[in-house]
Amino acid sequence: MSYEFFIAERYLKSRRKTGFISVITYFSIGGVLIGVAALIIVLAVMNGFESEVRTRIVGFDAHVRLRTFHNKTGVENYQELIKQVKKIKNVVGCAPYIIEHAIIQSHTNRPQTVFVKGSDPILEKEVTLLNEYIISGALTFDSLAVEGEQTLPGIILGSGIANRLMAEIGAKVLVISPAGLSITGGPYQVPPVKQFRVTGIFESGLNEYDANVVLCSIPAAQSLFYYQDKVAGIEIKLDNIDYAEMVARELDSMFGYPYTTETWYERNRTLFSWMKIEKWAAFIILSLIIMVAAFNIISTLIMVVLEKTREIGILKAMGANSRSIMRIFLFEGLVIGVVGTFLGSLIGYLLCWSQLKYEWFSLPGDIYFIKSLPIKMEMVDFVFIGVAAMLLCLLASVYPAWKASRLDAVEAIRYE
After folding, report:
1. Domain residue ranges in the chain
2. pTM score, whole prediction
């Protein structure tokens, strides 16, 4: 231990003539503590929400999609294509899909615009968690017969659409496709229309999907949208979501034009970019609490310098140079920062852990898609917040330390 640190520690521990200085020191530590704890809690909550949203988006959607440019030509021989894709490292599941706009209507409500997704119910389980989101019925498109009525193919509705259509399991719905319609003055053509019977209702917790997506079988979607024996593309699931861009680049180099890829992040870039901006904004705003504590540190150390003027003069007379005096007061500010950061990190961690363990803060299920405040603690946040807090405290100590180092030894002890 250097003598500068030893003296700094003594200055912090000693009972000063002016007790007010000690009070301000405690306030400074408390300010750092509150700022660090607030930052850790807020970032953990934002990480939790981001993780929940990402899990539900990826749970309903694939990690990577392989399709043709502009979705114009469709993918032929997709079964052979799936075999080739499955050979790629990190790929654990593939499924064909068709996604197009359509209009859906029940006999009890007005028409609604939706996205119709054609999929294979068996392969769908390999690439998404849709089966876990089914709240009524089952993940099946098998023809469903109702006594006294004709047998119709099955369709699965999002909970939002089901509510708007007032449709339950077994209800009959009509899907109208815009495929084949032209605005170029060609001959009039009746749009494809197909009747379905509801075999399932899903709820992912994300309104974008629940209120806008319905699912039917691949053959039914091919018939509705004139895809013949083609599909729009292939959905791909990986063993690690972080490999999505790497696998997408490999697929691009393997297949080339007319194929292209699209990752889950590219489809939701705006949402996750905004969440990242919010996280940084919260970090900057809450750092102002630590800034207030830093100003307290400045005032505290300035008053310590004034109180310890004689001691500083004696140290200089004994041979201490200006650099050593400056280190003493820098160490004081750093100790305040370290103590406040440690206690704040500990309190922040304990509060986050208790929420994870006991779920003190619950959320109304009819508004949010989760039952309690989500928490996700990341070590990088603790490190980043701790380093930032201690740097602010160290910077706040620079001016008082510099003023102390500039004191003249003779003037400091002349009247003692």
Report:
1. 3-56+272-413, 96-232
2. 0.74
